[in-house]
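Same chain as my last thread, 357 residues:
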Amino acid sequence: MLWTSLLAFTAVAEAAPWYKRQGSTTMLRFGCAQVVIDRLDPLVNPGQAPSPHVHQIVGGNAFNTSMTTGDVSNGASCTTCAFADDFSNYWTANLYFKARNGTYKRVKQLGAAKQFNDDFSTKIDGGVLVYYVSAQPGKITAFKPGFRMLVGDPTRRTADPNMKRQNCFRCYSGPNFGGDTAAPCQGTNDTPGLPSSPCKGGIRSNIHFPTCWDGKNLDSPDHKSHVTYPTSGPATFLSLGGNCPSTHPVRIPQLMYEVVWDTTPFNNKADWPVDGSQPFYFSYGDNTGYGQHADYVFGWKGDALQKGMDASGCMGAKCKDMKTQTIENAKKCAVKPVVKEDHDGWIDHLPGMEMPM
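reply #2:
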């Protein structure tokens, strides 16, 4: 079904799932397998190894401790993402389960629901789903070489009402979406913090980035000030919102990360804290979820991303002249961990938070 505008889609939102929106909106939606799990953060803690907490990183193999400037696509030879020209790096903090005895275990990730039925949704084995949205009318300018940004605040422990549609969690009531097809951060099972009860199908994280750029700076000291949200505030998914402010006049793609955490092995409440409180912690010590954040370093080769943003109606992991690769080839791409830590066993403390060096 072809929708001619976002307004038309809104009028019939109950008749079709959000992921079937097409027409004047281009939505590149693709998976990226993990390239490495490591306690590094070249954006916030450049040159520091180890960094304060553990991240899961996907994308190009140029990821390293000090990739602070320049075009990362020049230093990468492979990528874990569906589009062969995307050498960007995308990363988020890891999630851990804290058992009643005080030990922790990393929560692994799932792919997307089977409705999408593509290898880069269902076979990434613990990666991240990435979205780039170009909502017409109006020119959408792809990010430039050297561009990077950060969204979210790892120190936050209370809800930010202004970000309820930009940073959320969905409690799946069963496998394969649990029957919930609402747009990200707009469903009845979406919450600004981590769910307080066991989720039969796991927990999904959605993180939206700002959509307005100052047009000059590829980065800023806080990695946030060079970008912002429209004058009307953060936009809902698949809508870039109102006009950009005069300080940030350039409309950039709506970038979103989606991570499905496989919390199902930890749904036995007998293993949860005695008081029944929420037992999942991000690697920076947050069990509220309000500190959820994400990092981005642009690394598309040449004008590959701009082609996608200019192509009307592209949907999913393929788009006209944009080159793709096989999931088998993507999974061969990897970076050797710098910090040697146990990522799969039970551990006494969150790495970097309390664990001795």
